[in-house]
Amino acid sequence: MKEEPGRARKTPGSAPTPADAAGDAARRAAWAQRLRNALLSLCSAVLGLLVWIVLAHSGIQGFPGPASVFSRGWQMLRDGVLLDDLGASLRRVLTGYVIGTALAVPVGFAMGWYPVVRRLIEPWLQFFRMVPPLAVIPLAIVLMGIGETPKIFVIFLAAFLSCVVSTFQGVVSVDPTLVSAARVLGAKDGRVFLGVVVPASSPFILVGMRIGLGAAWATVVAAELIAAQSGLGFRMQQAQLYYDLPTMFVQLIAIGTVGLAMDRLLLFAEHRLTGWQERR
Questions:
Q1: What is the DSSP string of 67-136?
Q2: pLDDT tens across 159-216, in order?
Q3: Does the global pTM surpass 0.85?
């Protein structure tokens, strides 16, 4: 086999090269960082549990402890009530969130790339951003009824408004030097947009998607508190009538756990898609 020019052949038992040593050191440092992060997360969870136990024994009337909450959660899980409520809320969140983000990304790109579109849409966008989605719930119920449509609509609105602003900001924040350099090299507008603007604005888009996810969960709970026959918010409202604090805690933990898992998935996608970006 012909040896490549300028490349030394590595024989078994030979001493590691400086590049190999640097690679091994980087891998060890990465594993050490992951281990530190895992230990910090574990310490945070233990500290939160201890604070919860202290609050439960501090004399606050009716404040449930971890044992009673986990017992109620296991009972609701065994009866199927928790899974049914979680499925109903998750279906609403995913439907409204996917529609909202799918529409927000192209609208944000159009606003950032075309000044005419920006002038036409931005005033209305800022106007509706000042109106909380929760304030739209009564109007949506009156106009659309008490079915699934108004709940999905307000979730869509919350996700759309969060993501479209972030996408728009990402496009207008692209370094003009990169755009000018691409055009000097002969790239047309479409090539510049796909090759420069979209990659450079992707971190903003993913941050907007994470913010929109939190807004979607907050909105679905509020919508289910007002008009629903199933869902985590509906179950919390029913528990409030009977002062059933363990059930309310179970719903809160379920919302936080599922929301955190979805956020971690988006964060993983962000790291995979924007690995070129420098991070602290």
A1: HHHHHHHHHHHHHTHHHHHHHHHHHHHHHHHHHHHHHHHHHHHHHHH-HHHHHHHHHHHHHHHTS-HHHH
A2: 999 899 898 888 888 877 877 887 777 777 778 777 888 888 888 888 889 999 988 9
A3: no
Sign for the CA dihedral angle at 87, 88, 94, 95 comes to positive
Nearest to 151 by CA among 192, 93, 194, 201: 93
Write out the two tokens for 203.
């971190």
Encoding tokens for residue 138? Answer: 């009564």
3-state SS of the chain is CCCCCCCCCCCCCCCCCHHHHHHHHHHHHHHHHHHHHHHHHHHHHHHHHHHHHHHHCCCCCCCCCHHHHHHHHHHHHHHCHHHHHHHHHHHHHHHHHHHHHHHHHHHHHHHHHCHHHHHHHHHHHHHHHCCCHHHHHHHHHHHHCCCHHHHHHHHHHHHHHHHHHHHHHHHHCCCHHHHHHHHHCCCCHHHHHHHHHHHHHHHHHHHHHHHHHHHHHHHHHHHHHHCCCCCHHHHHHHHHHCCCHHHHHHHHHHHHHHHHHHHHHHHHHHHHHCCCCCCC
Task: Render pLDDT for 10-53 as a digit per residue (tens, 0 to 9).
Answer: 555 555 666 666 666 767 777 877 788 888 888 988 898 898 88
Angle of the 115-129 helix axis to the 81-113 helix axis, nearest 10: 140
Burial class of residue 148, CB neighbours in 10 A (0-12, 13-18, 19+): middle
